[in-house]
Specification:
The protein has 13 helices and 10 strands. It is of the alpha/beta class. It is globular and about 65 Å long.
Amino acid sequence: LELRPLHMKMKLCWFLLLLLSAVSVYYRCATAHVHDTCAVTVILVGSTGDLAKRYIWPAIFDNNNYAHPQGSPEECSLVVYGATRSPVTNADELWSAVSVNMKCSDTDVKCKDSISNLRKVTHFVQLRNEEHYLELAEMVTKHYAERRVNETGRVFYLSVPPSAYAGISKYIHAHGRPNTGWLRVVFEKPFGHDFSSAQSLSQELSKYLREEEIYRIDHYLGKLGVQQIAPFRRHNSKELSTFWNKEFIDRINIVMKERLDVKGRSGFFNKYGVIRDVLQNHLTELLFLTVADCNTEDCVETKTEFLSKIYSPRIYHAVLGQYFEYQQHLLEDDVLDNVGNFSKVPTYAS
């Protein structure tokens, strides 16, 4: 049985959409008699990075909950803030950069209108230090007050390296909490670089955020192909039950083929490598979905039991390598300071 999660031309309905559903973006405003409308604020930290441009912005676009920028008495609209480390000098240029993967056909007027509406509710801000977070809080409060809009909740999506998680969480706790409504902070993988660092990071975050405010996610689980694995097994359980087992399946090959290199993000990649970047999260999740089944109540226990039964590989079981231009890309991204340096971080593993 071989799964090949290639770059299919499919819209990604991934974890950001699930998150927005989980926290009930479509809240009915309990204070509708005081405020005309209500809204959910999405603050994307690292909004111009590779992950944000490839996946998060298209996911916000697909959510389509900004179609009526003024909102309605019954449904909450989205207000989006794209945060960068650099000063915002030209918002239109930033929008052109982050919207590159929002595609519409020439004849799809509705799609083009949706992009235009999303642009109207999108603002760009600099978030580099504590003062910037304070300025953002004041900006958001003023925005809603002027429009008589009730902020139902606030989502911070951290599309940044894990080394920045604790500091940003501290600023969010001090200045980023909404005056009313809930708070959710989304943390992308990798969550630490090993078990010990993951535990330490969780302890650090607990100083500033409650557990119900923390979302640790793997965006790969939101790919349409990945989402269909469990339903496919359940819907065909009768037919598959006779041979979906070790007596008939000799091996499972999960192959991830990348067409893109890491140029432009090699600074991040060189700290983690391909194993921590995709193998121990994305592809391990695929393996779990293929061989195990669970519901929302026992999924954690089932996954823990499954992982405990996997044999730990030895170094002689693995083949590691790099693509040919990796060292040159490190130099171009200023990760290596001279040609004499050399990185042994793998970009290939099997």
